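Backbone geometry:

***
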Amino acid sequence: MSVAPSLSRSKRLTLATACAALLALTVSACGSGSSDAGSAKNGSGSSAPQPYKGQTVTVAGVWTGAEAAEFKKVLAAFTERTGVKTTFVSTGDNLSTVVGSQIAGGNPMDVVMAPQPGVLAQFARKGYLAPLSTTTRALAKKNFATSWVNYGSVDGTLYGLYFKASYKSLIWYDPTAWSNAGLSAAPTTFDELLKDGQTLSDSGVPAFSVAGQDGWPLTDWFESVYLSQAGPTKYDQLTQHKIPWTDPSVTKALTSLGRIFKSPALVAGGNQGALHTDFPTSVNEVFGPKPKAALTYEGDFVGGNITALKKKVGVDAKFFPFPSVDGGEVPAEGGGDAAAVVKSAKHQAAAQSLVAFLATPEAAAVWAKDGGYLSPNKNLALSQYPDSTTRSIAKLLVNGGDQLRFDMSDQAPAAFGGTAGSGEWKILQDFLAKPADIKGTEAKLEAAAVQDYRG
């Protein structure tokens, strides 16, 4: 389906107005390519021109709860600087479907926070997105590592600006439950993790709260196991479907993961309980007022949920890296959400100015200070993060390394790796329900991959 672009208001600006807006945090691109304009208070407290003041930019993203509330603070900072009003619409995990339907119905949002490179690529190749502005491209080159720019590019064109990143290979734990079980040192191997989990269960507290109701945490479980056990080269091959999901390396990873999923002692509520536990609940079951487990696996963003429970990260909640599996390297899996401008957006130029603002350290600092957030912006000072725990994770993320890999399912076509109730999400939920069915799980994953990668 082709989508006709609307006429960008910025093309009707005079050169003088556009260059004046260059003084703002969100600026007008005076060169070739897509243009954007905005305004902000300058250092003296006076205001730069606000060519889009009063317009409303609608932003769609998957965030709910604490994450949505924090992002709205970032949008409010943009409004304060530019006069552009903003509305955030949470799509839940069905972003791909919602965005496609809105565009097809002629009622598109202006900006999409794409949670997967696969979704970003799909939207760009369908003609849904506008290339990001000259200004944003310059800011991306200045403030972000090349790898993040590459993840935001499709066929060599920058369509997405990664505003929020995550470092996913982390296991969070309740230090009180940990010490009450007689545990001290963090496990460094997968076997030690399972042994410590059994010790926790014997002390009266199930080990893990597993967020099986949401398919995406299950993909992260698999990916950390696979990345450590099979290594980054195999990880890249499976990500690109250059090896099948029936490869022996997949069999091995599912077998290892099944050691946790099949054990009632290691999973709070057992398989069926996990299948009825969403991500926020999995955090609440460990750090809420009535704990039901001692551990939960997910990324740095767990910190935001912990803070919302009035607990202090680093004191009431701690983490250790996902341990090495079968002698492999400690896995380092990341992810992120990229801001993209919809080509048919009513206020496309104002939308471009928002994305330019999101490329600045100032925008990242708004969320960073409250926790539950990591920025891939290398020029955001680590001191902007609220605690030493988050600063240490942010440093790991920004420094990167050969082992760091973007979330595998996020790089896959959305139908396979990013859609609730289908593809990898649903198949791994079925695996959680029946972790002994390894061959059947592999076969279903491969059949879905063959279909969806071709599509």
Notes: Residues 65-82 form the longest helix (18 residues).
